[in-house]
Each structure stands twice: as structure tokens, then as C-alpha cells.
Design brief:
binds flavin mononucleotide; 14 strands; globular; TIM Barrel; two-stranded antiparallel sheet; alpha/beta
């Protein structure tokens, strides 16, 4: 469950003393217990939390640890939810909201929803063909899909035959030749944007996930046995594909003796360019002729610097709480970043987006659009393409309803005055 604001003192003491009136709000003392839907039909998921519960019922512990886990004490992970929860709406009264619009423009192109699917690696761990399923759901909704360097399908296949805004996320490793080859390939594949992730040159310590390995690349016997006890996951991944996924886009760079699934992931980790700096971003800018975003910034001054380096946009992000622990959330930095760069730079933000109201808060604070990471992964793990589509549909419904309740007719009209802390 997401972080809740502390229970107001009076209600808390009433509830604890047992003297709470029968009509006391259910969520304050968790009675009656609320149940999430964890069955098989994505159409029955009412919230993203239901899709999350469905995913949890399918995935073995090691895949779940990878999906959910944050770094170290997970304070950054928690901050992402808390930062969103700290903002409260101040609805505009008596506004005619009979017509409402969620449409916006991103890089000059109209878009029906202010959403972008964030890059996530190892998607094949959740379902065979998950990258393509996410791409299909994105294309159907008219929103961009960002494919990770560590994805499990060739970038040419992910978008084939789809009317997709296909973005390519670049991890800088094996600099400069690997970078140059991947950039050239993304250009040939027709990608609209290159998203350079800069916050993972040193891999975060994801303890939850790490405990499933005896040493780099080797799952514990317990994790392997546990996976064998998850038949639905086995059927949707290993049996369907006949084995572990492959990092299709970078495997050619990995030495033959390291080409096992986890072994190659750990090998790439070791090759990440720890000398990545602003000069290299400028060189990537010179190589890439289309839209360029820098992902993983948290300091407003760095957002201004990205604009100077020639980026068209940034993603304010702490990598879903998976890298440096105890950071601010991207949302925390958003108002100041927007103030510094004005309207001249596209700003996306991510971290903890699970509700339509979360998206509206980010837009009101100055984001052009919002990236979703785990939300669509829950969907795809739960029910493949239909699950990913259900995530987007839930967020759409929630955004539309919240916009109306807020007294705003278009997401373009959201501004900080609808929020208070
Ligand atoms: C399972 C998983 C894998 C991820 N892999 C990548 C990746 O390959 N490249 C990247 O730039 N970010 C990666 N991220 C971070 C996401 O792009 C995004 O910043 C983050 O998920 C947003 O937070 P949220 O999951 O709370 O929505 C990953 C996140 C998750 C949860």
C-alpha cells in the first residue's frame, strides 16, 4: 500500500480506544480489511495496486525482488511515494467540467495522454516478449515506449509494424565504440528519441535482489527451487521461450564466456563508463540527430546544464529508488528545475507514479509528461499486453475523474495553484 498521511490525532485515539463511531472512515484503522484483486483477469483490476497484487501472485521471489527492490534501506524508494502524497489538492469550485481533455504535446507532437513508458531492463524475466507487449500497449494508447539497453528483444523487432513513438535508452558502457554503434542502430531503427541514463554508472546496492545470488550471476538453490514452484511464471517465461531471456541488443559486445543471462548482465555492469561526464554528453549530442534526453538528474542546476549541453529534455529521476539511497525524489526538484529553465526544455519526471492523481500533481508542478516504470511492469507481469494496457486504462480513468473533481478542464491548464503542502 502507498504511504498514507499520519492519522489525525483525534481519529487515532478514538479508533484505539474502541470508541470510534461505527461510521469512522475505514482506512484510518484498517477495518474492515481491504482486499486487492489478485486473480487472473486484468479487466477486474480496479487500481494499479490490484495489478501489483496479481503480479505478486505470479512471480517467484527472485523476480519480485528485482522488480520491487530499491537500494539499501530503500529510503529513496519510500521518498518517491511520500513526495507525491505530501501534496494536497485545492480544487477550483464551480467550474464547468463537462468537457475534459488529457491530451498534450510532447516534442511538438500531439499525444492523447501525458504518459511515457519508462525504460526497464530484464523485462523478459517477467514474461516472454514483455518488451513487445509494452510497446504494443504504448502504441495503442498513443504514448512513447522507451526501450532499455538491457531489454530482451532486438530494437528493430520491438517496433516492427507498430505506429509507435519508439525511444531508445542508452547505458554508456564500452565507450566510445559500443555507444557509437548503439546510437547508429537506434537511428536506423527509426527511434524518435535517445534517453541517456546517467545515474547508473555505478550499480546501486539492491539488497533485496542481491540476497538471491550466491555470487555475481549465480542464483541460490533456494531461489531456483522457488522459481520451480511458480508454474504460471514458468509457463509465461521459461517454457514459452525455452530458457532464460537474452540481451538481444548488446549480447554481441559480451565475451562468449559471459553470455549467460545473469553473467552478461553482471559483465555489462562492470563495463559501465565511470568516466561519463558532460563532455561525453556533448559528444553523444553531436552523434545523435534527433531528440535527446538526459535521464537521472535530481539537481535543478544540472537540468540547466543539460539544456546548455544541447539536450532537448531531461527526466528527473532517482531510478525508481534503485541507485543512490536517501535522495530526494524527482518531484521534489521539479518546481525549481522548471523555474530555472522556463518553457525551453522538456521535463519529464518519474518515481512512484501509481495513480492518475500522481500524474496530475507532477504536471501541476511543471512536468510536460510523466514516466511510468513499475506500474506498467505490474500489468505486463500480471497479464502480458492486456495487463500493460489495463495499467494505462486505469491511469487514464483516474486522471480524467481527478481532473474533473479538481475543477480543471485540461491537463494543459494545471498549475501549482491547485496544490498545497
Ligand atoms: C525493474 C526495473 C528495471 C529498470 N531498468 C532500467 C533501465 O534499464 N534503464 C533505466 O534508465 N532505468 C531503469 N529503471 C528505472 C525506470 O526507468 C524508472 O526511472 C523508474 O522505474 C521509475 O520509478 P517507478 O518504478 O516507481 O515508476 C528500471 C526500473 C525498474 C523498476
Amino acid at each position: 500500500m502507498r504511504a498514507e498521511a499520519p492519522m489525525p490525532g483525534n481519529a487515532a485515539s478514538l479508533a484505539k480506544s474502541g470508541a470510534a463511531p461505527a461510521s469512522s472512515p475505514a482506512q484510518l484503522d484498517a477495518t474492515p480489511a481491504r482486499h486487492l484483486y489478485a486473480g487472473h483477469d486484468p479487466a477486474r483490476a480496479v487500481t494499479v495496486e490490484d495489478l501489483r497484487a496479481m503480479a505478486h501472485s505470479i512471480l517467484p521471489a527472485f523476480a519480485l525482488g528485482y522488480l520491487e527492490g530499491g537500494a539499501e534501506e530503500e529510503q529513496t524508494l519510500a521518498r518517491n511515494l511520500a513526495a507525491l502524497a505530501a501534496w494536497r489538492f485545492l480544487p477550483r469550485a464551480l467550474v464547468d467540467v463537462s468537457q475534459r481533455s488529457l491530451a498534450t504535446t510532447l516534442f511538438g507532437r500531439p499525444m492523447p495522454l501525458p504518459l511515457v513508458i519508462a525504460p526497464t531492463g530484464l523485462n523478459g524475466l517477467f514474461r516472454a516478449g514483455a518488451d513487445r507487449m509494452l510497446a504494443e500497449a504504448a502504441a495503442e494508447a498513443g504514448i512513447p515506449f522507451t526501450q532499455s539497453t538491457m531489454s530482451n528483444m532486438a530494437m528493430e523487432d520491438v517496433a516492427a509494424g507498430l505506429d509507435l513513438r519508439h525511444w531508445w535508452q542508452l547505458y554508456v558502457f564500452g565507450w566510445p565504440s559500443v555507444t557509437e554503434q548503439l546510437i547508429a542502430r537506434a537511428e536506423r531503427a527509426g527511434c524518435e528519441a535517445l534517453v541517456v541514463t546517467i545515474d547508473a554508472q555505478i550499480f546501486g546496492d539492491r539488497a533485496w535482489s542481491g540476497r538471491h545470488f550466491t555470487r555475481p550471476g549465480h542464483l541460490t538453490w533456494g531461489s531456483i527451487l522457488g522459481a520451480g514452484l511458480h508454474p504460471r511464471w514458468l509457463a509465461a517465461t521459461m517454457l514459452r521461450r525455452r530458457g532464460m531471456p537474452v540481451f538481444e541488443n548488446i549480447i554481441e559486445f559480451v565475451p562468449r564466456e559471459h553470455r549467460g543471462f545473469y553473467d552478461s548482465a553482471f559483465w555489462v555492469r562492470g563495463q559501465m563508463d565511470k568516466g561519463l561526464d558532460w563532455d561525453k554528453i556533448a559528444r553523444i549530442r553531436a552523434l545523435w540527430p534527433r531528440k535527446l534526453l538526459v535521464k537521472g538528474l535530481l539537481r535543478p542546476a544540472d537540468v540547466a546544464r543539460a539544456a546548455e549541453a544541447g539536450a532537448d529534455g531531461v527526466v528527473l529521476s532517482n531510478h525508481g529508488g534503485r541507485q543512490l539511497d536517501s535522495t530526494v525524489s524527482g518531484l521534489d526538484s521539479l518546481p525549481e528545475a522548471r523555474r530555472l529553465v522556463g518553457d525551453g526544455l522538456t521535463i519529464l519526471v518519474d518515481g512512484g507514479i501509481r495513480h492518475g492523481s500522481d500524474v496530475l500533481k507532477a504536471l501541476a508542478l511543471g512536468a510536460d509528461a510523466v514516466q511510468i516504470g513499475r506500474a506498467t511492469l505490474y500489468g505486463v507481469a500480471a497479464a502480458g499486453r492486456a495487463g500493460a494496457a489495463r495499467t494505462i486504462a486505469i491511469l487514464r480513468e483516474e486522471m480524467d475523474r481527478t481532473l474533473g473533481l479538481l475543477g480543471v478542464t485540461s491537463v494543459r491548464d494545471l498549475s501549482p495553484d491547485v496544490l498545497t503542502r
